[in-house]
Structures are given as structure tokens and as C-alpha cells.
Amino acid sequence: MSKSTKAIVNLRVSEIASLLIDGKSRIDIVEYSSIKWTIGERQTDKYIAKARELISNENKKNVRYDYGKALKRYELLYSKAMEDKDYRLALSVNKEISQLQGLNKIEVEHSGSIEFISNIPD
């Protein structure tokens, strides 16, 4: 049996990722891959592992990018609101920008002592 190319492997992994997302069980995926690609359990398990990794990596957040994108959108909306003299919207957007940047501080008063409590038995 000839070895699959990287492109074919990537297509199969993507297809298995879709099956996992759809809620298919390992047994269903093994049966599916056996019929469609005539591969065994061990190879299917390798594809499943790669598919899970693919799904996991796609869901990692890029916080810096998302923060920058959100801030730019707010700034554009604020600019548009000021051009249109929609001061209510501009004020609302400004509040959202302040909240996004963490400028809204909450002061907490505290009195008494702080004690360290450990749940670890002696």
C-alpha cells in the first residue's frame, strides 16, 4: 500500500475534525475511515489525534489581535458618531473604550485582618 501525500493526510484530518465536531464517536470514525479510505484503526487513531490538535489550535485566542481589533472598531465608531454629531453614541462608545482599556476602577474598602487559610492536612 502506498503512503498518502501530505495533502491527502491534511484533507482526511480536516474531514475527521468535522466528524468530531459533529459528535461522531471513535467507533463511527473508524468505520467511516475504513470504508472511505480503507485504513485501519491505528491509522485512524493517528488521524483523530491530529484532528483534535487541529481543533484545539484553531480555538486558541490571539488576545493582542482581538483587543486591537476591538479597540480600532470602537475608535472608528466614535469618529463616525462625532462626524454625525451623535453625541449620545459617542459617549456610549467612549464608555466602552474606557471599559475595554480597564480605566473604570472600582474602589473597595477593607477593614479587618487577612488570614491565610490552608486546606492541606497536617
- DSSP helical segment count: 5
Structural class: mainly alpha
Please state the oligomeric state of the protein chains shown.
single chain
Count every beta strand, where a strand is a DSSP E run of 2 or more residues.
0
What are the segments in which pLDDT stays under 50 over at least 5 consecutive residues?
none
Reading the helices and strands in chain order gives HHHHH
Which descriptor suits the 3D outline?
flat
Largest sheet composition: none
Q: What is the C-alpha radius of gyration, as a whole number of Å?
A: 26 Å
Q: What percent of the residues sit in helical stretches (DSSP H or I)?
A: 55-70%
Overall pLDDT level: 89
Strand content bin: under 5%
Distance between the termini: 61 Å
